[in-house]
Amino acid sequence: METSGDQNHTPFHTPPTLPPIPNLPAKAIDQTKKTVELLEELVLSHDAVFLLMDTRESRWLPTMLCAFHSKLCINVALGFDTFMVMRHGYRPPAGSTLPVSDTKTKHTKLPGNKLGCYFCSDVVAPTNSTRDRTLDQQCTVTRPGVSMMAGALASELLVSLVQHPWRGLAPADCSGEEDDDPDTTCCLGLVPHQIRGFLSRFQNVLPASKSFDKCTACSETVLQHYKKEGFDFLLKVFDTPNFLEELTGLDKLHASVEDGQVWELSDSDDFEIA
User: pTM above the 0.70 mark?
Assistant: First the structure.
């Protein structure tokens, strides 16, 4: 077995409470470009990518690159006594012979190309998720077995995925039933979209969620802008906190929320609807 290690640092934008840096030094831009090129080369040279980061924002670039280059992506996130293991939605490369499941009349499962990624459930762009958070909120402190349990399940999820005849396009069951649907299983059993574990109850659940057309990482809008602009697009993302929200239309989604739908809660038990 041949292994290698690379230490990369991609300077995401400054915290939202600070103004963006309009003119980064040329040296910093060159270093960032080399880091991005190395990361993209690693994604291209592998069949699958595991995201085992501590922060939300550090997952954005590899998530986007995996979607752009049609790579299998397994994401793992930890809490103090919880974990999440998920496979991202898979876009087959041009000329692929893998079949796409016809689920127009089957509402109990989602095809692999319609599954959401880690960012599809978010309505805000990635920011500094470690600011003003305690160690346990930063996923730095966990129960002793959480990381090993999540790592083992991530490995098993990939094994099951590659054993399915449709690979990344394998549909995920969203019915909650225990029927052995041949589309959502392989020779090893189920191929779920997500595995969410709760050690406080020693329980796992297997939800499935659909991709979001305004996703800041895998939406067609983001992928097409990266295809067109390349590294210049990434610089805008790194430097401007609200760029992705404006690009994908999340800012308009926020603005569309009526005042009557927002509840203002005070420190007391009393509350009023604005």
Answer: yes
Q: Distance between CA 255 and CA 183 in Å, rounded? A: 40
* Annotated active-site residue in 117, 139, 174, 215: 139
Quote the percentage of the chain above a pLDDT of 70. Answer: 74
Instruction: Provide φ and ψ at 161, rounded to 5°.
Output: -65, -45
Q: How would DSSP label each residue in the chain?
A: -----------PPPPTTS---SS--HHHHHHHHHHHHHHHHHHHT-SEEEE--SSSGGGHHHHHHHHHTT-EEEEEEE-SSEEEEEEPP--PPTT--PPPP--TT-TTEE-GGGB--TTTT-SS----TTTT--TGGGT-S--TTHHHHHHHHHHHHHHHHHHSTTGGG--EE-S------TTTEETTEE--SEEEEETTTTEEE----B--TT-TTTSHHHHHHHHHHTHHHHHHHHH-TTHHHHHHTHHHHHHHS-GGG-EEE-SSS-EEE-
Instruction: Catalogue the E-assigned strands of 66-153.
Output: 72-78, 82-87, 109-110
Give the residue among 63, 132, 70 at the shortest CA–CA distance from 96.
70
134-171 tens-digit pLDDT: 666 666 678 999 999 999 999 999 999 999 999 999 99
What is the DSSP code (8-state) at residue 115? B
SS3 86: strand
Do 49 and 73 form a contact (C-beta atoms < 8 A)?
yes
Cross-strand partners of 74: 50, 87
What are 96's two structure tokens? 């692929």
187 belongs to the catalytic site: no
